Amino acid sequence: MIGAGVGGLAAAARLAAQGHTVTLVEQAARVGGKLGLETVDGFAFDTGPSLVTMPDELRELFSATGSSASDAGVTLTRLPIACRYTFPDGVTLDLPGEVEQIPAALDAALGQGRGAQWTRFLERSRRIWDLTETPFLRSPISMSTMVRLARKPGDVRAVAPWQSLRGVGSKYLDDPRLRMLLDRYATYTGSDPRTAPAALVTVPYAEQAFGSWYIDGGLYRLAQALADRCATLGVELRLNTRVDEITCGADGVAGVRLDDGSMIDAETVVANADAHQVYDNLLGRRHRGVAAARRRLRRTTRSLSGFVLLLAVDDPPADQAHHHVMFTEDYDAEFDSVFGRRGRARPVERPTIYISAPTDPAIVPGPDTGAWFVLVNAPPHDPDNGTDWDAPGLSERYADSIVEQMAERGVDIRSRIRHRRIISPADLERRTMTPGGSIYGTSSNSATAAFLRPSNRSPVPGLYLVGGSSHPGGGLPLVIMSAKIVADMIGHAGA
């Protein structure tokens, strides 16, 4: 097993529970991958996902490996306010965490009738969810899935594979703020709402139907709990261990070669690594089917990356929401910048700003302090054809700009920042070995994106891919689903 991100940890635990002997190697000094942790002077920051949706996926994972989430030290708390949204016109919406309360909140903040619009939209989203959940999210992706769907014209019309996320939203939502709210969900997959498929309307449905959750003590607790679960199940975990090559024989995978030259023989290899890293760097070009996999990857668009500020805050505002999105005045300009339309990919001058500000005493050194995670969409690190995030002074200047814009939009903490750390796309690339620091691997910027995303079963017999860059995609619940798909493919030892 290569990579101890959530996908690798979840797959390792499942496979060990099935009776397999599992060795898990991780190039970093700690587990978690993109679900990272950084500590500064007693402040603890989650440096990756900051929200849990579809909590039953997490609970099922622990149950399937012989424990429970609570027994493993993962305590889930449902947030009464899923997110605060501040729109360019100054209107603020506190979106309730209970779906039944959302229509009234929309009417109160945005005007009568907005709740009914969103309800009709969610009804369409639920219909698409019901049609796609099992065949597209919980099963290996295949063209036969689309063939089966095509046999029912009504289902095809409901899923509308020819429409974009924004296109289907425009049929239900006439308030530009509601459309902006919907556009935001495309970024959950690192995508552009103008080209992302209509099927992504299932993202807001899942979040609102199943709730927004926080793990007490921070989301990194999940990585720690999964590592503990792996240890209990007998998984051998090797940290600070880098894989240089996936070795293959005539009949398929043979194991891995480490950077110190030693070998680990294996009948099966599961790679929790970016698919570009696997196919371009870890597999030799002589292996059958690898060239075709590389060609498919070249036809995809890399997902957006993120520019992150970790802010240790003294005396934070008492009324600050746990999750807060402050929208840009021009969302299209933001996506143009990030994806390099109308010029090279470049930092967004006035980006949408996301703040995660949990009020959790376990992550701060004392009362009246806060550990804030601030994120803006950013183009991947690409010195040759886009943005060189290592250019002298760029990250510091951009961080200053973001803090100033937070103040302009009503969250002024400039005089309260005790410490500031920056994580640029270039830093993400180095930390996670993900090309350019692309958070989700490939974006969903086309109707065929789901079929171009690398499948869990590679063309090399015995080699499987798990995690956010492979099917079914990025985000904690989908990565956990990915691990289950792979474990089910490999099956029980001796079966």
Brief write-up:
The chain has 495 residues and is of the alpha+beta class. It has helices spanning 6-17, 55-64, 102-110, 114-137, 143-150, 153-159, 165-170, 176-186, 202-210, 220-232, 275-282, 290-298, 331-339, 394-408, 425-432, 449-452, 476-490; strands spanning 23-25, 37-40, 43-46, 76-78, 81-86, 92-96, 213-215, 236-238, 243-249, 252-258, 263-265, 269-271, 305-314, 323-326, 353-356, 369-378, 417-423, 463-465. The chain folds into three domains: 6-35 and 55-66 and 216-300 and 453-490, FAD/NAD(P)-binding domain, CATH 3.50.50; 114-211; 301-437, no CATH class.
β-strand amount: 15-25%
Low-confidence stretches: none
CATH class assignment of the largest domain: Alpha Beta
**How many β-strands, per DSSP?**
18
Number of domains: 3
User: What gross morphology would you assign?
Assistant: globular
Mean pLDDT: 92
Distance between the termini: 20 Å
So, the CATH homologous superfamily of the largest domain?
FAD/NAD(P)-binding domain
- Give the helix tally: 17
Under CATH, the topology of the largest domain is which? Answer: FAD/NAD(P)-binding domain
Main sheet: strands, sense, barrel:
7 strands, mixed
Strand order of the largest sheet: 6-5-14-15-16-13-17
Tell me the radius of gyration.
22 Å
Helix content estimate? 25-40%
Helix-strand category: alpha+beta
